[in-house]
Design a protein that fits this description.
48% of the residues lie in helices and 2% in strands. It has 328 residues and is mainly alpha-helical. Helix 3 runs parallel beside helix 8 and helix 7 crosses helix 8.
């Protein structure tokens, strides 16, 4: 594995090994992280007035983090690990691998533009689970417990991203001698990203009413054209043969993923109208699926109609069905 990683440098990459850092670099960083974030048994975010104002606005109070941490250890630790690294006791045996929160990246958001998720996005994932994965639904938990879990996941993401960025800076020689100051600077920047996401409006307008007949068929045709045309949404460039052709790629965690197969009607974050609207409008930045902010709401709904109808030939206009069934 080490040899494979080293080959990345030969093609213009840069690999950094945290184990290569000296004790003089690691120890101050560890001290700074404990001072700012506490221990797993007593999680908290501490800092200057600007930091604490952001903490209060995001609801990351010590009391809520303590409650969320207890719930996390009960329901989530076995897969996601104590630090949120996705390496819990069962993590190595689960596919897809449990999410590593420490990059601060999330797939299923309603904010788009590679923004952090809104709290409601995290709660939705916790409540509904992810179809086709080992992430179960926690719909039976009380709503306030799901909210506390989302709060603690936010905390793990902030801490992990601050540590990761500081480690990268130390490896590049950018933070030597002042890891505490660098951690504080990164935490403020990361908190501002979460605050920005909190202020963004939900991007799903009121749900459309599903209609049959000519109006439905016209909408599916428009969605098909947007899906396939290069001048439209450009979906077919990645979802080759409507997703039936495997087009593997890496996400930001280095996990192999593939664009969804439209013929299967299986979507991890749900196959409802609003679920698909969020994915098309906001994209899935962590997996390379772009957002489509320039499409009108009506165009996005046309795409939703097409995607919802694609697995069911009887719901497709005859001309669209013939094109989909004509395999390349």
């Amino acid at each position: 594995m080490d040899e494979e990683l080293q080959t990345l440098d030969a093609i213009g990459g840069r690999t950094l090994d945290p184990l290569s850092l000296s004790p003089e670099q690691r120890n101050p960083l560890q001290k700074s992280l404990v001072e700012m974030f506490g221990q797993p048994s007593s999680p908290a975010i501490q800092g200057d007035p600007a930091t604490m104002a952001a903490v209060a606005e995001l609801g990351l109070t010590q009391e809520r983090l303590l409650e969320g941490g207890l719930l996390y250890r009960r329901y989530c630790l076995q897969c996601h690990g104590l630090t949120g690294d996705g390496r819990g006791p069962t993590g190595p045996w689960v596919y897809p691998q449990p999410r590593d929160f420490r990059r601060g990246s999330f797939k299923f958001t309603s904010t788009g533009d590679s923004a952090k998720p809104r709290r409601e996005d995290l709660i939705r994932t916790i409540k509904e689970g992810l179809k086709g994965t080992a992430m179960p639904s926690f719909a039976m938990l009380p709503e306030e417990d799901r909210e506390r879990l989302a709060t603690y996941v936010t905390f793990l993401a902030i801490r992990g991203q601050a540590e990761l960025q500081t480690l990268m800076a130390l490896g590049n020689g950018e933070a030597d001698g002042d890891s505490a100051g660098f951690v504080h600077e990164r935490v403020l920047a990361i908190l501002s990203e979460w605050r920005r996401a909190k202020e963004l409006p939900a991007r799903v307008p009121s749900r459309f009413e599903k209609r049959d007949g000519a109006e439905h068929e016209d909408s599916v045709r428009r969605g098909f054209d947007l899906f396939t045309a290069k001048s439209g949404a450009g979906c077919a460039a990645c979802h080759e043969d409507f997703g039936r052709k495997a087009a593997y790629r890496y996400d930001v965690w280095g996990t192999v993923v593939r664009p969804a197969d439209l013929s299967q009607n299986k979507y991890k974050s749900g196959s409802g109208d609003e679920d698909l609207f969020r994915r098309i409008r906001g994209g899935i930045a962590a997996s390379g699926m772009p957002a489509h902010p320039t499409l009108s709401d009506a165009q996005v709904w046309d795409l939703v109609r097409f995607v919802r109808s694609a697995p069911f030939p009887r719901e497709l206009p005859a001309d669209v069905r013939e094109k989909i069934e004509a395999r390349p």
